[in-house]
Amino acid sequence: MVAPEDLLHNLWRCLAYDPSAPMLFSSGTFWALFLVFMPIYGMLRRRFWQMVVFVVAFSFFFYYKSSGVFVLLLAATSLFDWTLSRLISRPGASLLFRRICVGASLMASLGVLAYFKYANFFLWNINAMVGSNFQPLDLVLPVGISFYTFQSVSYIVDVYKGRVAPTPTWLEYAFFLSFFPALVAGPIVRADYFIPQIRENRHATRQEVYTGLWLVILGVVKKAIIADYIAQYNDLIFDTPGAYSGFETLMGIIGYTMQIYCDFSGYSDMAIGIALIMGFRLARNFNFPYKSHNLTDFWRRWHISLSSWLRDYVYIPLGGNRKGTKRTYVNNFITMLVGGLWHGAAWKFVFWGAMHGGGLALHKASQPWLKKLPDNRLMRCIWWLATMSFVALLWVFFRASDWNDSLTIIRAVGHDFSFAYLPAFASARMLWLILMVVIVVAHALPDGFWEKTGNLFVRSPWIVKLLIFVVVVQLVIELQTADVSPFIYFQF
To answer: Is 9 a catalytic residue?
Structure first.
């Protein structure tokens, strides 16, 4: 018999924030809470304000379980920006006053982001220039701060430009900013797309519920089965750079290329699926990016919500392609630099963004010459290989601990490289290779294959759905590591 005080203690442990185990979609705690959340949510769907209050409360609790006391920062950001949005749209407000409000919002949102994410980076660089005795600030980066900050910025700018009307109440804005499926790792939600759905307050159809379940299952397979398993070998390569042969190092680089895709797209699939089960539509965030034959196409397929955000709020305000060819290349380059810095406060991320910016500019500049080349299977294969080699090489800087480790890993590929290592590698890492092949095959299938498969799942009998679910859960249990691995993009 469990004593009441023990029961209360265990309940508190489940509800309290644990910095060593932040809330993840792939954790059992989240799904236990979600199973409690959904029946209550369903009962409140026809009671608009009760539903809004309940979802906002759950979203803030979810963020508390993910980032602790920083939930207060999220609440303060939402209240401050909502107040300014009402002032911006106030009848009779002068242009100067409206601009001051926009400036105050941007300074607050971006200032907080800069403090937590970039303060130590800037101080470290100042220290390197003047030779002072720099001691890093004891800062903890709030989970997902970059995602909800970008949502906040786009909302204020869109209200100022008249693209969206400000929400009548703070609760509706808090619903938009803190919506838990997309809160901590995206996709970045746009106000003009999402806020009208709050007022619609519609029930998810049977097809949407099952489609959402299918997306959640796909996301779990990508994240908890494929990404987490292949990460075990990839971590060996990146944690001890230069300690392995060239062949083994190359496998680690290719492995991380696949890992980051499965990890991040898997999270996005789960987020979109959970939202769809609730009756809300989130925009697609990945479209098989490793099918791309050039960098321009890659950035149309990879992290689509960020790419479109950078296009609309950085590239176009800089002038886009309206101010001549050279300025277009410069704007592309600056936009990708911003994208690089968004991912992390380190020179390796700046370099990553700069290389992608340079690659995009080079691709656009080469269009007259490229159009003269034959468009056949051989040429498409060559351009695909060149694009994927470029992308995979730059992922090294994304994953390695620092600049020196990145260069060491790249140099290691050319050291002692031989396909003679393949038989022994295959013998020791057979499941790793199988999972890698699964990802390649998934990209090689026709574009409509997964949509048709999802439709088959939706139409299948409940026993088939249950069987698929049980098999996936069993695979997660069989392949899981000792700890639930955090999503890679949590740190951004």
So the answer is: no
